User: Fold CASP-like protein from Aristolochia fimbriata.
Amino acid sequence: MKDFPGTPGTFTGLFLRISQFLFAAGAIASMATADGFTNYTAFCYLIASMGLQVIWCLGLAFLDAYALSKKKLLRNPILVSLFVVGDWVTATLSLAAACSSAGIVVLYDRDLGYCKLLGCRKFQISVFLAFMSWLLIEISSLIMFWLLAAG
Amino acid sequence: MKDFPGTPGTFTGLFLRISQFLFAAGAIASMATADGFTNYTAFCYLIASMGLQVIWCLGLAFLDAYALSKKKLLRNPILVSLFVVGDWVTATLSLAAACSSAGIVVLYDRDLGYCKLLGCRKFQISVFLAFMSWLLIEISSLIMFWLLAAG
Assistant:
């Protein structure tokens, strides 16, 4: 397996995982403190999906930190297969959650103009952070898939 | 490059492209015949995204059919790179469009109960077809990426 930035057990890999964790945690915090988010299925789904991402990224960040401290590279094909599946599922769920929430925010903000009355700032911030988190986990996902395929 | 189902220039590849085209065209038809879809940004975006997918899949279906008729396998790395980027972009846009529209349909159907008054059947069918189309192009996308990475 080739060695390039973002592979598990490297500093860039650890940096990617911590960034994903921070953005996902930020998205949850912003959504959970917004008024009336429980009335919307999509916003609850965003919290669930970002919650899954927080657990996944934190777990992998610890694994990366452990590998770095022991100076090991995590290149076992079974382990990489697990990372590929996990990253792909988490990335797909994150994008789905971010987009379904973004659909509602755009509906309320642009199409119906409710945001002037209700205030959607926290929903918008949460959706933005969820998109950032997705972007980073998508990068990780593509790196893992490449690692697995390139053998 | 290894030979497995779904690679460009094979019958399964052609079948995948035609299925993606049909589902995307069905999603457009169902959305375009629904009343008042132009009032919703997400629904207009669904049509635009599925329109892009229709053009992309139809082009690749013709290319696959041509390769099959000439008994050629399309394995040029530059061509496969182009397929990877195109499939990845189309798949991501399709999922984003399907999810943002699904967010609004779920909001109207489950959260607000407007669907009993307005009728959302065509929106629901369109979103379902868009998801099916995304699922198939995601499969193509993963196959292409694997082909490129495995060299």
Observations:
- The two ends of chain A are 5 Å apart (CA to CA).
- The CA atoms of residues 46 and 97 of chain A lie 5 Å apart.
